[in-house]
Amino acid sequence: MTSPEVAPPVYDITIAIPTYNGAERLPKLLEHLRIQTQAEPIRWEILVVDNNSQDHTAAVVQDYARQWLPNVPLRYAFEPRQGAAFARQTAVQSAASELIGFLDDDNLPANNWVAEAVDFSRRYPQAGAFGGRIDGNYEVPPPEGFERIKNFLAIRNHGSEVMAFEPDKLQLPPAASLVIRRQAWLDSVPPEPTLGGKVAGLFVQGDDYEPLLYLHKHQWQILYDPALQTVHQIPPQRFERSYLLMLAKGCGLATCQLSLMTANPWRKPVIVMRTCLGSLKRLGLHILKHRGRSHADLATACEFEFHLGSLLSPLYVRRWS
Questions:
Q1: What is the pTM of this model?
Q2: Which CATH number, 3.10.20.30, 3.40.640.10, 3.90.550.10, 3.40.50.300, labels domain 11-239?
Q3: N or C end of the chain, less CB within 10 A?
Q4: pLDDT for 321 beyond 90
């Protein structure tokens, strides 16, 4: 794929914030960006991508822009296609920087997040993307067994050392806190995402992993930076049983599509078969382990739904070519 012609970068990094109905969440995130430390020598901008919000998100951004930092532009872009994957593509096309740091609107960065992102990118030039540690701030106590399913809510801690993710095993960082090299994305990632949101009324996930798999295919490393830290705000509704079960199944439903994403055509039937057999085995073992009580508690029920979604995932493959 030939990358589009782009203007030379103006900034070192663009902080891109995809948001849907984020009027109530954005102020806290913007205040955390306002007080970034060690960022004085860095040329940076903030880009809020409004993903077809129905609230007053645009007005919130406009109000902040009028009283924002003098040397850090705060820009607004509108993406009418629903889905974070489309919002991220808009951010990549609109950014005027070497790096893009994605932050979800409910994920608050440490005070040195911008400086750490730029510094890490310079120390590890082979990294096409990297994520960091994401802790949780819970408004209500998590359910029993939450440690087993915290990945579904983008809570991640891979320790205190830099490490390489394993994309071939679908071990990748979430887009809630992710830094990418813009030119690497433009050279590697197709402009139209395959996983863009709901499919047939189901909450199919995986859209944040898709571009990372393309970066991996083009020989870029995907790394973990333990010093790049954020705190994910988790309101009570995120712990509702119906939401977590839907989320867990949605993650499972993306399994086959993600495994096929960068595979050679001749390998795709093999991948589908392995996905079916492997998921069936894991689902069977899960049922045996819990002696038929796979929905006895919320964590166990989420694991069941994930394995079931993975087993069904070949039915939700969108594109084979």
A1: 0.92
A2: 3.90.550.10
A3: C
A4: no
